[in-house]
Amino acid sequence: MQTFAAMSKQITLSALDLSVVIEGGNATTAIARTVEAARHVEQLGYARIWLAEHHNMEYIASSATSVLIGHVAGKTNQIRVGSGGIMLPNHAPLAIAEQFGTLESLYPQRIDLGLGRAPGTDQLTAAALRRNNMGTAYNFPSDIRELQLYFSDENSDGRVRAFPGEGLDIPIWILGSSTDSAYLAAEMGLPYAFAAHFAPSQFYRAISLYRQNFKPSPQLDKPYVLACVNVIAADTDEEAQVLATSMYRMFLGIVTNTRRPLQPPVQSMEPYWSPDVENAVKQMTACTFIGDRNTLTPTLSTFIEETGIDELMTTGNIYDQGARLKSFSILKDILG
């Protein structure tokens, strides 16, 4: 078998984890699975692992994202740990500057700060988080600039300063699932991470706009694109397809608003969805790669070459932890 590395330049590989609660588990076991995954991908040589902010979701244990980042960083040695992302409109920029300044002080040169505009939840919960100030999403660009100011040395004469935080080099990323975020990341000269694992429809257009409109900045001199996709890898295509049913059932729950813990795999999805629901789920998961090494090598190669991405971030909602860790290993084997 020919690996992707043999066919093209080596690509940076990273992981996204939401601390998903599996059937029979709870938040404690979900976080333990996250730590085990972080240690595993660190040993494999993955560049980073990110955790995502979600609220009012019973089966996602990453709501206190900064706390969880600190926990994972403390249980690993050199892998970068960050947010994929912090939903900045839910927070005062000063609070995030202090939190991530503290993390960077504890774990120097290992912390990433990915920022998103969406609430990461439903509107009622967003109102509770934002204390009914629902206009904060419109302040996203100015809030990022305020955050950058708190991290800069230029704020040493400011009346409001971030300690820890001031003077620290904490990479800021813009996260997105639409073209709006692409324009913003380009204008600010920041790296761009696209959530193709659940919102693939505008992916190609967004990264094209980002590259076309990119303006160099002190943080970045040329565009940098990270794509997050679903990868379910196994020893055989048949095994991978069965493992993927847990992911499909999770997205089915999102589409039908019948969320459950991550379910064990099943032999077939046919009893679980109608054609309309299947179509909706397949649209959400269009950037999903399922199979063994021989299947994934050409499909991932084509995707990476067509998109020209600089980094591939993988998330794979696999019920069995051993199979999940093996999927990370197979992907690393493929990408070299």
Automatic annotation (TrEMBL):
<dbReference type="InterPro" id="IPR011251">
    <property type="entry name" value="Luciferase-like_dom"/>
</dbReference>
<feature type="domain" description="Luciferase-like">
    <location>
        <begin position="25"/>
        <end position="310"/>
    </location>
</feature>
<dbReference type="InterPro" id="IPR036661">
    <property type="entry name" value="Luciferase-like_sf"/>
</dbReference>
<dbReference type="InterPro" id="IPR019949">
    <property type="entry name" value="CmoO-like"/>
</dbReference>
<comment type="similarity">
    <text>To bacterial alkanal monooxygenase alpha and beta chains.</text>
</comment>
<dbReference type="GO" id="GO:0016705">
    <property type="term" value="F:oxidoreductase activity, acting on paired donors, with incorporation or reduction of molecular oxygen"/>
</dbReference>
<protein>
    <recommendedName>
        <fullName>Luciferase-like monooxygenase</fullName>
    </recommendedName>
</protein>
<dbReference type="InterPro" id="IPR050766">
    <property type="entry name" value="Bact_Lucif_Oxidored"/>
</dbReference>
<dbReference type="GO" id="GO:0005829">
    <property type="term" value="C:cytosol"/>
</dbReference>
<dbReference type="Pfam" id="PF00296">
    <property type="entry name" value="Bac_luciferase"/>
</dbReference>
